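ENTRY TYPE: paired fold submission
RECORD: A
CONTENT: sequence, then C-alpha coordinates
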Amino acid sequence: MILESVLMNIPFLHSDCTSGDVVDLIEDGKEAPSSQNLYAGSVYYEICLHRQRMKIGECDLRIGMNDELYYAGNIGYRIFDGWRGHHYAYEACLLLFRIAKEKYHMKLLIITCSPENTASKRTLEKLGGKLEETVNVPEWHWLYKRGERIKEIYIFKL
Protein backbone atom coordinates (compact mmCIF):
# COMPACT_ATOMS: atom_id res chain seq x y z
CA MET A 1 0.00 0.00 0.00
CA ILE A 2 2.79 2.44 0.81
CA LEU A 3 4.67 1.45 -2.36
CA GLU A 4 1.53 2.06 -4.47
CA SER A 5 1.14 5.50 -2.92
CA VAL A 6 4.76 6.39 -3.70
CA LEU A 7 4.56 5.06 -7.27
CA MET A 8 1.43 7.10 -8.06
CA ASN A 9 3.38 10.29 -7.36
CA ILE A 10 6.12 9.52 -9.90
CA PRO A 11 5.37 11.59 -13.04
CA PHE A 12 6.23 8.89 -15.59
CA LEU A 13 3.58 6.54 -14.21
CA HIS A 14 0.63 8.90 -14.54
CA SER A 15 -2.18 8.04 -16.93
CA ASP A 16 -0.98 10.65 -19.44
CA CYS A 17 2.22 8.62 -19.95
CA THR A 18 2.75 5.77 -22.40
CA SER A 19 5.81 3.90 -21.29
CA GLY A 20 8.22 2.02 -23.53
CA ASP A 21 11.52 0.25 -22.98
CA VAL A 22 13.68 3.18 -24.14
CA VAL A 23 11.46 6.28 -24.15
CA ASP A 24 8.18 7.35 -22.63
CA LEU A 25 5.58 9.63 -24.23
CA ILE A 26 3.97 12.15 -21.91
CA GLU A 27 0.81 13.76 -23.25
CA ASP A 28 1.32 17.50 -23.57
CA GLY A 29 -1.96 18.70 -25.08
CA LYS A 30 -4.67 18.11 -27.62
CA GLU A 31 -6.16 19.97 -30.55
CA ALA A 32 -9.79 19.14 -31.20
CA PRO A 33 -10.98 18.56 -34.76
CA SER A 34 -12.12 21.81 -36.37
CA SER A 35 -12.46 23.46 -39.77
CA GLN A 36 -8.95 24.93 -39.32
CA ASN A 37 -7.34 21.47 -39.27
CA LEU A 38 -9.80 19.93 -41.75
CA TYR A 39 -11.45 18.05 -38.87
CA ALA A 40 -8.40 16.00 -37.88
CA GLY A 41 -7.53 16.36 -34.20
CA SER A 42 -4.04 15.97 -32.79
CA VAL A 43 -2.48 14.76 -29.57
CA TYR A 44 0.92 16.21 -28.63
CA TYR A 45 3.57 14.39 -26.61
CA GLU A 46 6.92 15.03 -25.00
CA ILE A 47 9.47 12.32 -25.75
CA CYS A 48 11.35 11.57 -22.53
CA LEU A 49 14.02 9.08 -21.64
CA HIS A 50 12.42 6.02 -20.06
CA ARG A 51 11.44 6.60 -16.43
CA GLN A 52 12.84 10.13 -16.48
CA ARG A 53 11.37 13.55 -17.15
CA MET A 54 14.36 14.32 -19.41
CA LYS A 55 12.67 15.77 -22.51
CA ILE A 56 14.63 14.77 -25.61
CA GLY A 57 12.06 15.58 -28.28
CA GLU A 58 8.45 16.04 -29.27
CA CYS A 59 5.93 14.18 -31.37
CA ASP A 60 2.28 14.24 -32.27
CA LEU A 61 -0.39 11.87 -33.47
CA ARG A 62 -2.90 13.27 -35.95
CA ILE A 63 -6.16 11.37 -35.81
CA GLY A 64 -8.07 10.48 -38.96
CA MET A 65 -7.32 10.93 -42.63
CA ASN A 66 -7.93 13.76 -45.07
CA ASP A 67 -6.15 15.61 -47.89
CA GLU A 68 -4.02 17.63 -45.45
CA LEU A 69 -2.83 14.54 -43.59
CA TYR A 70 -1.96 12.69 -46.77
CA TYR A 71 0.92 15.15 -47.23
CA ALA A 72 1.67 15.89 -43.56
CA GLY A 73 1.16 12.37 -42.21
CA ASN A 74 -0.46 11.02 -39.05
CA ILE A 75 2.76 11.26 -37.07
CA GLY A 76 5.26 14.05 -36.72
CA TYR A 77 8.40 13.84 -34.58
CA ARG A 78 11.45 15.85 -33.68
CA ILE A 79 14.44 14.74 -31.64
CA PHE A 80 16.49 17.59 -30.19
CA ASP A 81 20.12 18.15 -31.21
CA GLY A 82 22.44 16.18 -28.98
CA TRP A 83 19.96 13.30 -28.68
CA ARG A 84 19.88 12.29 -32.34
CA GLY A 85 21.41 9.05 -33.58
CA HIS A 86 20.10 6.84 -30.76
CA HIS A 87 16.91 5.62 -32.51
CA TYR A 88 14.66 7.60 -30.15
CA ALA A 89 12.32 8.61 -33.01
CA TYR A 90 11.92 4.92 -33.87
CA GLU A 91 11.07 4.08 -30.25
CA ALA A 92 8.61 6.99 -30.02
CA CYS A 93 6.88 5.89 -33.24
CA LEU A 94 6.45 2.35 -31.89
CA LEU A 95 4.59 3.85 -28.93
CA LEU A 96 2.52 6.10 -31.21
CA PHE A 97 1.58 3.05 -33.30
CA ARG A 98 0.33 1.35 -30.13
CA ILE A 99 -1.65 4.44 -29.07
CA ALA A 100 -3.14 4.86 -32.57
CA LYS A 101 -4.26 1.24 -32.68
CA GLU A 102 -5.43 0.73 -29.10
CA LYS A 103 -6.83 4.13 -28.16
CA TYR A 104 -8.00 5.54 -31.50
CA HIS A 105 -8.73 2.26 -33.36
CA MET A 106 -6.68 3.30 -36.37
CA LYS A 107 -5.74 0.53 -38.80
CA LEU A 108 -3.52 2.52 -41.15
CA LEU A 109 -1.05 5.36 -40.66
CA ILE A 110 0.85 7.62 -43.01
CA ILE A 111 4.18 9.17 -42.14
CA THR A 112 5.84 11.48 -44.63
CA CYS A 113 9.34 12.83 -44.98
CA SER A 114 11.32 15.00 -47.33
CA PRO A 115 13.47 13.02 -49.81
CA GLU A 116 16.69 14.59 -48.49
CA ASN A 117 15.95 13.63 -44.85
CA THR A 118 17.96 10.40 -44.81
CA ALA A 119 17.73 9.95 -41.02
CA SER A 120 13.94 10.05 -41.14
CA LYS A 121 13.86 7.71 -44.15
CA ARG A 122 15.98 5.18 -42.23
CA THR A 123 13.57 5.45 -39.28
CA LEU A 124 10.54 4.85 -41.50
CA GLU A 125 12.18 1.89 -43.19
CA LYS A 126 13.20 0.40 -39.83
CA LEU A 127 9.57 0.76 -38.72
CA GLY A 128 8.56 -1.38 -41.70
CA GLY A 129 6.93 1.37 -43.72
CA LYS A 130 6.13 0.89 -47.37
CA LEU A 131 7.03 3.78 -49.65
CA GLU A 132 3.76 4.45 -51.42
CA GLU A 133 4.86 7.33 -53.64
CA THR A 134 6.81 10.57 -53.92
CA VAL A 135 4.51 13.56 -54.42
CA ASN A 136 4.58 17.28 -55.04
CA VAL A 137 3.05 19.16 -52.13
CA PRO A 138 0.07 21.24 -53.34
CA GLU A 139 0.36 25.03 -53.10
CA TRP A 140 -2.62 25.24 -50.69
CA HIS A 141 -0.89 23.06 -48.08
CA TRP A 142 0.83 24.55 -45.02
CA LEU A 143 3.92 22.45 -45.79
CA TYR A 144 4.25 24.19 -49.15
CA LYS A 145 3.90 27.58 -47.46
CA ARG A 146 6.88 26.77 -45.23
CA GLY A 147 9.01 25.74 -48.21
CA GLU A 148 8.50 21.97 -48.39
CA ARG A 149 7.77 21.01 -51.99
CA ILE A 150 8.21 17.22 -52.18
CA LYS A 151 7.19 14.48 -49.75
CA GLU A 152 7.68 10.74 -49.66
CA ILE A 153 4.54 9.00 -48.42
CA TYR A 154 5.06 5.89 -46.25
CA ILE A 155 2.17 3.60 -45.34
CA PHE A 156 1.98 1.57 -42.12
CA LYS A 157 -0.64 -1.10 -41.46
CA LEU A 158 -1.32 -1.49 -37.76
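RECORD: B
CONTENT: sequence, then C-alpha coordinates
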Amino acid sequence: MDQQYWLVARDKPGLLIALMRALAEDAHISFEGDLSRCRELFAFPGASTQETEVLRRNTLYAVQDFVVLPLESDGIRAILDAVLPEGRVVHDIVHVQIERAGRLEFGAYDNFHRECIGCSGRIPRELLERLRVNGVLRSYKPAPPQAKR
Protein backbone atom coordinates (compact mmCIF):
# COMPACT_ATOMS: atom_id res chain seq x y z
CA MET A 1 0.00 0.00 0.00
CA ASP A 2 1.19 3.50 -0.80
CA GLN A 3 2.36 5.89 1.89
CA GLN A 4 -0.36 8.26 3.03
CA TYR A 5 -0.02 11.67 4.62
CA TRP A 6 -1.92 13.53 7.30
CA LEU A 7 -2.24 17.20 6.40
CA VAL A 8 -2.84 20.18 8.65
CA ALA A 9 -4.28 23.03 6.61
CA ARG A 10 -3.72 26.71 7.27
CA ASP A 11 -5.58 27.81 4.10
CA LYS A 12 -8.36 25.25 3.63
CA PRO A 13 -9.77 26.68 0.38
CA GLY A 14 -6.21 27.04 -0.94
CA LEU A 15 -5.52 23.38 -0.18
CA LEU A 16 -8.67 22.30 -1.98
CA ILE A 17 -7.80 24.43 -5.02
CA ALA A 18 -4.25 23.07 -5.20
CA LEU A 19 -5.32 19.44 -4.96
CA MET A 20 -8.18 19.87 -7.42
CA ARG A 21 -5.67 21.26 -9.92
CA ALA A 22 -3.11 18.53 -9.19
CA LEU A 23 -5.64 15.70 -9.52
CA ALA A 24 -7.89 16.91 -12.35
CA GLU A 25 -8.39 14.59 -15.33
CA ASP A 26 -9.75 11.08 -14.98
CA ALA A 27 -10.97 12.13 -11.53
CA HIS A 28 -14.12 12.81 -9.52
CA ILE A 29 -14.82 14.99 -6.51
CA SER A 30 -17.57 14.53 -3.95
CA PHE A 31 -19.09 17.07 -1.59
CA GLU A 32 -21.27 16.15 1.38
CA GLY A 33 -23.07 18.45 3.79
CA ASP A 34 -25.60 21.26 3.55
CA LEU A 35 -25.40 21.97 -0.17
CA SER A 36 -28.48 24.21 -0.23
CA ARG A 37 -26.33 27.24 -1.15
CA CYS A 38 -24.48 25.19 -3.80
CA ARG A 39 -27.47 23.83 -5.72
CA GLU A 40 -25.78 24.55 -9.06
CA LEU A 41 -23.45 21.61 -8.36
CA PHE A 42 -26.34 19.23 -9.02
CA ALA A 43 -26.79 20.67 -12.53
CA PHE A 44 -23.17 20.11 -13.61
CA PRO A 45 -22.72 17.77 -16.57
CA GLY A 46 -22.07 14.31 -15.18
CA ALA A 47 -23.22 15.19 -11.63
CA SER A 48 -24.64 12.33 -9.60
CA THR A 49 -26.13 11.94 -6.14
CA GLN A 50 -25.13 8.27 -6.09
CA GLU A 51 -22.14 6.97 -4.18
CA THR A 52 -19.40 5.32 -6.18
CA GLU A 53 -17.18 2.43 -5.20
CA VAL A 54 -14.58 4.95 -3.96
CA LEU A 55 -16.57 8.10 -3.11
CA ARG A 56 -18.96 7.19 -0.36
CA ARG A 57 -21.09 9.10 2.10
CA ASN A 58 -19.35 9.63 5.42
CA THR A 59 -22.32 10.78 7.48
CA LEU A 60 -25.07 8.20 7.72
CA TYR A 61 -27.19 9.97 10.33
CA ALA A 62 -28.60 12.46 9.64
CA VAL A 63 -28.29 11.96 5.91
CA GLN A 64 -26.88 15.07 4.23
CA ASP A 65 -26.76 16.31 0.65
CA PHE A 66 -24.21 14.43 -1.45
CA VAL A 67 -22.95 15.01 -4.99
CA VAL A 68 -20.22 13.49 -7.14
CA LEU A 69 -18.82 15.55 -10.04
CA PRO A 70 -16.31 14.83 -12.76
CA LEU A 71 -13.09 16.69 -11.97
CA GLU A 72 -11.60 18.01 -15.18
CA SER A 73 -9.35 21.05 -15.60
CA ASP A 74 -11.96 22.98 -17.56
CA GLY A 75 -14.58 22.50 -14.82
CA ILE A 76 -12.54 23.53 -11.77
CA ARG A 77 -13.48 27.25 -11.91
CA ALA A 78 -17.21 26.49 -12.06
CA ILE A 79 -16.97 24.10 -9.09
CA LEU A 80 -14.99 26.65 -7.08
CA ASP A 81 -17.49 29.38 -7.96
CA ALA A 82 -20.15 27.24 -6.27
CA VAL A 83 -18.26 26.14 -3.15
CA LEU A 84 -15.93 29.02 -2.22
CA PRO A 85 -18.24 32.03 -1.66
CA GLU A 86 -19.10 32.84 1.95
CA GLY A 87 -16.84 30.06 3.25
CA ARG A 88 -19.23 27.34 2.07
CA VAL A 89 -16.46 24.78 1.60
CA VAL A 90 -15.50 24.95 5.28
CA HIS A 91 -18.85 25.76 6.89
CA ASP A 92 -21.62 24.14 4.84
CA ILE A 93 -19.66 21.31 3.24
CA VAL A 94 -18.66 18.74 5.82
CA HIS A 95 -16.71 16.21 3.71
CA VAL A 96 -14.75 16.54 0.45
CA GLN A 97 -13.15 13.59 -1.34
CA ILE A 98 -11.24 13.30 -4.62
CA GLU A 99 -10.63 10.05 -6.45
CA ARG A 100 -8.50 9.60 -9.52
CA ALA A 101 -8.46 6.52 -11.70
CA GLY A 102 -10.55 4.67 -9.12
CA ARG A 103 -8.33 5.41 -6.09
CA LEU A 104 -9.02 7.78 -3.22
CA GLU A 105 -6.36 10.50 -3.42
CA PHE A 106 -7.60 13.18 -1.00
CA GLY A 107 -10.10 13.43 1.80
CA ALA A 108 -11.01 16.35 4.03
CA TYR A 109 -13.57 15.39 6.65
CA ASP A 110 -15.40 17.14 9.48
CA ASN A 111 -15.05 20.62 7.92
CA PHE A 112 -11.32 20.20 7.26
CA HIS A 113 -10.67 19.30 10.91
CA ARG A 114 -6.94 19.22 11.58
CA GLU A 115 -7.03 15.50 12.41
CA CYS A 116 -9.23 14.59 9.44
CA ILE A 117 -7.34 15.59 6.28
CA GLY A 118 -5.27 13.12 4.33
CA CYS A 119 -3.87 12.35 0.93
CA SER A 120 -2.25 9.44 -0.80
CA GLY A 121 1.46 9.15 -1.41
CA ARG A 122 0.72 9.59 -5.09
CA ILE A 123 0.45 13.33 -4.38
CA PRO A 124 4.02 14.48 -5.03
CA ARG A 125 5.87 15.26 -1.82
CA GLU A 126 7.30 18.29 -3.67
CA LEU A 127 3.76 19.67 -3.97
CA LEU A 128 3.12 19.13 -0.26
CA GLU A 129 6.38 20.87 0.60
CA ARG A 130 5.57 23.79 -1.72
CA LEU A 131 2.14 24.13 -0.07
CA ARG A 132 3.82 24.14 3.37
CA VAL A 133 6.38 26.77 2.35
CA ASN A 134 3.64 28.92 0.80
CA GLY A 135 1.54 28.76 3.98
CA VAL A 136 -1.31 26.65 2.60
CA LEU A 137 -0.33 23.76 4.88
CA ARG A 138 0.83 24.15 8.46
CA SER A 139 2.38 20.71 8.23
CA TYR A 140 2.17 17.25 6.73
CA LYS A 141 3.47 13.94 8.01
CA PRO A 142 3.34 10.30 7.03
CA ALA A 143 0.29 8.51 8.36
CA PRO A 144 1.13 5.62 10.66
CA PRO A 145 0.51 2.18 9.12
CA GLN A 146 -2.55 1.47 11.28
CA ALA A 147 -4.22 4.69 10.03
CA LYS A 148 -4.18 3.64 6.39
CA ARG A 149 -7.49 2.91 4.70
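NOTES ON RECORD B: Residues 4-147 form one domain. The helical segments are 12-23, 76-83, 88-91, 125-133.
STATUS: closed
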